Amino acid sequence: MKVTFFKRLKNFFRTTALGGLVAILPLVLIIILFRWIVNIIQKYLEPLVGLINTESELMIISLYIIAVLAIILLFFLLGLFIRTRVGRFFRTVLEEKYLSKIPGYKLARETVMQFFGKQKSFFREVVLVDIFNSGTLMTGFITDDHEDTDFLTVFVPTGPNPTSGNIYHVLKEKTVRTSTTVDVGMKTIISCGAGSCNLFKERTEKRDLEDEMRNV
Q1: Which is higher by pLDDT, 207 or 51?
Q2: Backbone phi, then psi, for 156, in 5-degree steps?
Q3: Residue 128 near residue 148, CB atoms below 8 Å
Q4: Residue 28: how many CA atoms within 13 Å on its side-chain side?
Q5: Rounded Cα–Cα distance for residues 156 and 167 (Å)
Q6: How far apart are CA 25 and CA 121, in angstroms?
Q7: How far apart, in Å, do the first and last CA atoms of the chain sit?
Q8: What dotted CATH number matches 125-215?
Q9: Among 1, 2, 14, 45, which residue's beta carbon has the most beta carbons within 10 A?
Q10: What are phi and psi for residue 29, nearest 5 degrees?
């Protein structure tokens, strides 16, 4: 009995720890990559900035600002290159042979594309769902509507990283449909809930209309 309990505890700890790692890993990798690029650019710009500005503290700030602007310019030039026929070819080869083999790359790419409205979303609709019957609503996205049953499949992402989350099969009556678009709903996840008033806007307007009708 004790062996079974400790085994379950071990499995629970392992799966929970791995889940946390998967949730935070993409964000950590992005930060590490960003810092690496900034450090490289700062290394080459430091002599030039030092000639213009001799104050050490101001020089560090200037280096960081210039490095960030250089990264934005680099991304812009890379985007221009990808728009060309040769660029599209290299991007396709790079994705098929290397990037697609990285765990979570495809999901992260699709999420970013949906966020900027560049790709049709595989999320059908934004809903508010009470998973645990506690009265607390979670922002979720319908991924499948089982027409022959009373259930919906809903993906509830973890903010601010929407590439990870949990999948729930919930009763339709437990979900609150919204008219919010998927890209707006995704922005509320990335911004840690900021802008979530849009999710309740339709319900608030409907409630105000009902109150007005009662007062007539």
Answers
A1: 51
A2: -110, 105
A3: no
A4: 6
A5: 6
A6: 23
A7: 67
A8: 2.30.30
A9: 45
A10: -65, -40
pLDDT mean over 75-90: 85
| DSSP secondary structure of 181-195 | -HHHHHHHHHTTTTT
CA dist 168 and 144 (Å) reads 11
Locate the domains of the chain by residue range: 2-103, 125-215
Please report, rounded to a whole number, the percentage of residues in the chain having pLDDT higher than 70.
64
DSSP for the chain, please give it: -HHHHHHHHHHHHHHHHHHHHHHHHHHHHHHHHHHHHHHHHHHHHHHHHHHH---HHHHHHHHHHHHHHHHHHHHHHHHHHHHSHHHHHHHHHHHHHTGGGSTTHHHHHHHHHHHTT-S--S--EEEEE-TTSSS--EEEEEEEE-TTSSEEEEEEEPSS-TT-EEEEEEEGGGEEE----HHHHHHHHHTTTTTTHHHHHHHHHHHHHHHHHHH-
Q: Distance between CA 161 and CA 190 in Å, rounded?
A: 6
Token readout for 124 is: 């059908």
Of 120, 134, 129, 179, give the one whose Cα is nearest residue 151: 129
Pull the structure tokens for residue 28. 């950590």
d(CA 58, CA 49) in angstroms, rounded, equals 10
Question: Which has more confidence, 11 or 1?
Answer: 11
pLDDT tens for each residue of 96-109:
787 777 766 666 66
Is 70 exceeded by the pLDDT of residue 151? yes
